[in-house]
Amino acid sequence: MTQDPQIIFSLRNDHVRKVSEAALIEAENSGDPQAQPASNSEPRLAVQRTAMITGAGGLLGRSMHTRLEQSGWRVVPFTHPELDITNDVEVQSTIERIRPDVLINCVATADVDRCEVEPDWAYRVNEKGPESLARACRLVEAEIVHVSTDYVFDGSKTGFYTQEDEASPQSVYGKSKLAGERAVSTQNDRSYIIRTSWLFGAGGKNFGSRVIEYARNGAALKGVKDQTSIPTYAPDLAGRIEEIIDLGIHGLYQVTSTGPTTWLEFARLALDLAGLQEVKLEPVTRASLDQRAPRPQNSAMRCLLSEKLQLPPLRHWKDALKEFVERC
Ligand SMILES: NC(=O)c1ccc[n+]([C@@H]2O[C@H](COP(=O)([O-])OP(=O)(O)OC[C@H]3O[C@@H](n4cnc5c(N)ncnc54)[C@H](OP(=O)(O)O)[C@@H]3O)[C@@H](O)[C@H]2O)c1
After folding, report:
1. Does the beta carbon of 106 lie inside 6 Å of ligand 1?
2. Contact 192, 145 (CB under 8 A)
3. pTM greater than 0.85
């Protein structure tokens, strides 16, 4: 196992307590049926947990909300207009008022190129905001989930990046996200840092989420052929985040769907699955797009901690994409 201190994990005390309580309920319920009144089939110690979500109006924020609500959590979502995470005073007072068991920070500066020209904004949202959230959570003894990115890697590796690889971001976006990871884990040792890559799903503003819509609107489509990572389906990521919270093992995770690919291959399959086989997709290089922010050429990730915890891999992005397109 790695020497990276962020991967050394700790078991929550209250997790141990909850597991013991659950075991107790099970033991009680599995006894002599005569000892259990027939009407008393509800678990007696079930406690509804509260999850606060910031960035709740975004792609992952909405998937997280749906997922946790379906699982019986009390969910308190905050969209950007409802809570700006760069407002430290508002952050403190809101978290003190809600007193969540866990806060899930799904805020993003979606525009990677804008970060390059507005670094102050990028660091405010990606580092200072998460730092305030993590500090306020510590003060009310709440856990925090902070979502980060594969863009913390420089992209020069052949093969999968693990937590043992040095993070060496090339863009302001990647640097500010890495600073955010570090700020959160420094402020709150009950934190889960979840790096992910190439999110897609209903309502996202990114290329992966909107390629079918662009095609239906007659846009000329280009697919980058020389950048590799793993498209990750937001609802699947949300499910995994819930599992990680339930396990209660804090640390640095790298959670993606399965199977590296290019945007070109992803977009082609999305169009084909949507019955848009006739739509042309021009293969291009990333460099030809002349974008401000450098992107890692390869940022496919593996998660050593998930493997150690025997969390099964998420399904292949192609299977998730099929489900997504069917729902579009
Ligand atoms: N999308 C990807 O491909 C991708 C890849 C790797 C990692 N990630 C990470 O995954 C997480 C979720 O990304 P996503 O794709 O779900 O992003 P998203 O769809 O762009 O949603 C982000 C949300 O954050 C809100 N927001 C922005 N600034 C805020 C602020 N100062 N205070 C409060 N809310 C603010 C946005 O509101 P407005 O729209 O009103 O500004 C938006 O609703 C982020 O941590 C991101 O870095 C994403």
Report:
1. yes
2. yes
3. yes
